[in-house]
Amino acid sequence: MAGASDSLSNGSSDSACVSQEQASLEPKETFRRSSQTQKPEQQSRPPRIPSSSTDAQNRSNRTGSQGATGATNASGGIRPWILMVIFSVIQMLLSTHISNGVNASSSDRSADSTSGGGSSGNNYGGAGSYNRHYFRQLPRIKDPTRAAGTIVTERMTESRRLTLRQEAKDMFMHGYNGYLNNAFPKDELNPVACNGRGSDKYDPQNININDVLGDYSLTLIDALDTLAAMREPELFEKAIRMVKKYVRDFNINSRVQVFEVNIRVLGALLSAHLYASDPSFNITVRGYNGELLAMAEDLGKRLMKAFENTPTGIPWPRVNLRKGVSRDELVETCTAGAGSLLLEFGVLSRLTGNESYEQAARRAVFELWNRRSKIGLMGNTINITSGDWMSVMTGIGAGTDSFYEYLIKSYVLLGGEDYLKMYEASQEAIRRNLLHDSKYFYKHVHLEDGSLMAHWVDSLSAFMPGVQVLGGDLESAIKNHLYFYNIWRKYQAIPERFDFVQQSVAISNYPLRPEFIESNYLLYRATKDPFYLQVGEMILRDLQKYTKTRCGWASLQSVVDKRLEDRMESFALSETIKYLYLLFDEENVLHQGLKDSNFVFSTEGHVLKLSSKYLDRGNHPSNNQPYGLTNSQHESYHYQYTKQSLPTATHGKIDVENLKSGPMCRPYLMPETFVKSIPYRPDADFARQMVGTREDHRDLLEADPKGYCEKPTLDVEKVVVEFVGPPKKTFFEDESSDINEIERAESRAKESKETKQLMVIPIKKGVFVNRIVGVKMQIQYDGLQNGYRAVRVADYPLSLNCNIYVEQSSMQPLWDSYQRSQDAYLRIFIPNPSDASSDVPVKDFLITPADFGYWRPRVLDYSQQPAFNSHHAPNTNRFDKQWHQPLTHLTTTATKRITAKSLIRIQENANGCRPYTTSQSKRIQDKIMVVDRGGCLFILKAYYAQAAGAHSIVVINTEEGSFAMTGAGGGSAGSIVKGVGEGIRDDDIDIHAVMISRSDGRVLLDWIRENESSSGVASSDSQVDDERISGLTAGFVQRKVTKDQIASARLSYNSLPIINVFSISNVPVDTLG
């Protein structure tokens, strides 16, 4: 398994497949795990949990102290307040003496204490630091062992661990028996009313209920493998018999959500089948003949209806198990819902030999992946017919969570390097765009530019630490877990949304979600830190105190006042309590005989494992390509790396053991992850301050006299960058350019298939690189220089005094990238009123060139001081207002050299997503097509325009601003499906493709229509009556980078320079090693 020793994959719970905007307006309707509000008189409160032995000791101390006080007062001795002070000191000393799960002497703890100020250094709503006195105004906790949301600071002995394991099993049995006795064969238990709940037949649009409940005894099926994991063979066998008897098949007239049924029902059946039939689980069922697998296959066939009649390959969100997809089914689905089918469908394919399940799920993953934004983020919801994102806000929680989770788990369970690379690329995009400055939690941002769009975190985000454990990023997992741990301490649960600016609840319900609990479990498996066992006990006690009813476990309608909801969702037994049990069950087969196998937890907590016979690459081509696809079709589903001209980055860590030692530089050493238990870290209290949890005297036990909260040092940013030049078809024209010279350069570029071989040569003062394109460099942030310092080039480590020398001529592709990244414009011309043989520039529209296609703009000395254009048609008043626009002054020479083409708009094919007719193609020849965004991929629009003979294509964005349109993955490596067995590659596009903002695009369309009317343009062909051919012309110009700017240009990352790179014309002989 990947990651730390004994690490397991977690099962993050399900995503709410709703748009973020809708969720913010209707929280109870959009979180599918919320439940119906119950009247106060229906609420049931469990009996108070008996106090611990520590409570008794404290009561004894208080009794003794009170007696001593009375005696002393009677004799006229010490005053009572003095005794209270003495008692407080004694109590603190006693608390200090109690072990916190770490076998360290008091002298060791003193050495671990670190002094620091109270400033946090964070930015919440503009505040630059915390006011420590604010937290001291909160009421003090008199007895921390009896306070909710606190850890009992006792040594985690073996007997105590076993007691907690039994308590967790008893919790499961209480809920399971409550369901069987009061709700079965319905889907769920109402734990307050103690009756059953099924689908809502009276309100088919009640998706909070009907997406999940389909009248198939859901809780029984979902809990099957929990019985097996808890080593209850008789109950497990009995439950299988009940499923076979009462459920049988899924020929049910229920419209359910594909995602929910997949993870809760299909995953449960597959997991129970594996437990019952695979001897490695040590709980095989006698007489079992694969009936659960047959039921799973029956369900899988019904869910496959969601993949029919979808042009993108992304499945429909809901399906009727008997009738299939309704004609009026909604086209909006969430990324997690469509992209989290691969584990279950993959296992079903491997076990049954039917390749279609894994093929369909795999295609859906890649179709989603290929639509990520320019900064590498996945949208929250998507239109399955057009492939366009329907929500611009994104995060790691509801709507996207399990998509990221299933990338790494698919790699572990099914194999395939694609999944691992996609996971690493997604984690890098998340770290760069979603991670808060504190490094403790993740934000919700705009999909395209990463700007903050919400100031809350949702409870589903608590899955991420568990996934990071599997990926080996323990430090990030520890910090993110600490944030949610302190939220739990504050409310004894985690609310659906927590406002990190106001430090308060945004949406207050807690439907017994398991995400934080599973992350806590996985962190313990990876670290064996007893702190996580103590956190588990805290959770167990709080659930027992606040959610127990006479027949089950109820959700919290409010984490603030602890009001109950009358609903126990099935995942309370399949995940929440299961992870609590496994936390304390060291002897479980998952932690012993199977700990090094490929098993994973699904996002519903179901255990999935494949033996080697199902992993043979020869029999299962999905390790290399999707089932049943040709090589060209496979390329269409292949992941695409984030396209950036300079540089392309993926997260990386240095493997010190495999570093080649250079002749002059010592290896760069990674900082140790952690060396002591979590509560002893100097930054452990930092997360508490961010959440606003009140302090108690336990927080001060290890404090230094100078302060108790140390401002954490932010992690040094370390990334691997690979430098690339601009797309191959990039050429620039300026005043000194010779046409023949440019044509010869283009010819050479087309004939040259590869550049000179990359060489990295060690020299005395560092390394010499003969070309920069293709170099992979490890860099880390240097705060003193406000830039990045290279710590490794290729296989050579660099120390602080090492430099990188690059041959100057090889820097040209980087300079070209710098030039290409400058502001570009679509320059509009009209005929000169005084000279019909010439055109007059009237307006520049800011554009962004695509990452694919041809780019040959006219580079100009573009002044930053605009001047009003004086060339307007005085006799056409209609144009006066629009033509009087600021336009940068241009020299006559520059104006004459710009190649201008006519503009055309085909209204009938406004988005350019269909091939053009023959008659339309004749009109399009050598003109600039203007089309709308949406309906198909950008590269397909360009392909159809090019096939029709267009000179260029301008895409009008649906939003303000523009961005670099991505293609099929770069060069000949990536492609998209155009037809059967065919593909379109980036290199196939030989025309300009640019994007313009929505507002500028509307103005451009108005001008095209008005100029068409004034020119009297009419078509003699009735088939092209909707074509709009404009007398306007346009050309592409770009701001020219000066020689001084090129000379001072440096390699950069994240807009900051790499400070130890130098370009030289040649290498001095005396510097060679």
Automatic annotation (TrEMBL):
Coiled coil: none annotated. Residues 1-16, 40-53, 103-114 have a biased composition (Low complexity). One of its GO terms (molecular function) is mannosyl-oligosaccharide 1,2-alpha-mannosidase activity. Its EC number is 3.2.1.-. GO terms for cellular component: endoplasmic reticulum quality control compartment; membrane. Residues 54-74 have a biased composition (Polar residues). It holds the Pfam family PA. It is found in: Endoplasmic reticulum. Residues 909-1002 form the PA domain. Residues 1-74, 102-126 are annotated as: Disordered. Residues 115-126 have a biased composition (Gly residues). Ca(2+) binds at residue 603. GO terms for biological process: carbohydrate metabolic process; endoplasmic reticulum mannose trimming; ERAD pathway. InterPro entries: 6hp_glycosidase-like_sf, EDEM1/2/3, Glyco_hydro_47, PA_dom_sf, PA_domain, Seven-hairpin_glycosidases. Keywords: Calcium, Endoplasmic reticulum, Glycoprotein, Glycosidase, Hydrolase, Metal-binding. Its cofactor is Ca(2+). Transmembrane segments: none annotated. The active site is at 260 (proton donor), 401, 496 (proton donor), 515. SUPFAM superfamilies: PA domain (SSF52025), Seven-hairpin glycosidases (SSF48225). Belongs to the glycosyl hydrolase 47 family. This is alpha-1,2-Mannosidase. The lineage of its organism: Eukaryota, Fungi, Fungi incertae sedis, Mucoromycota, Mortierellomycotina.
